[in-house]
Amino acid sequence: MAMLTDELLLESYHMATLLDLDREFIALLLAEIHRRELITEPPVLH
After folding, report:
1. 37 to 6, 33, 42, 44, 45: CA distances (angstroms)
2. Are 11 and 38 in contact (CB under 8 A)?
3. 3-state secondary structure of 2
4. In the chain, what is the straight-line distance between the N-terminal and C-terminal CA atoms, in Å?
5. Which is nearest to 9 in space by CA: 31, 43, 46?
6. SS3 for 1-46, per residue?
7. Residues of the domain holding 7
8. pLDDT 10s digits, 6-44
9. Distance (Å, rounded) from C-alpha 42 to C-alpha 22?
């Protein structure tokens, strides 16, 4: 995850949710978003 830019991480999360990918994968992305304390539009819930 460290190799992803903030922008790419947020885009990956957005696409993963749109495509309804594996929940564990989405949770990993979301955990990294929270770890980096990124602000999202719209806000990420969970």
Report:
1. 10, 6, 14, 11, 13
2. no
3. coil
4. 19
5. 31
6. CCCCCHHHHHHHHHHHHHCCCCHHHHHHHHHHHHHCCCCCCCCCCC
7. 1-46
8. 999 999 999 999 999 999 999 999 999 999 999 877 666
9. 21
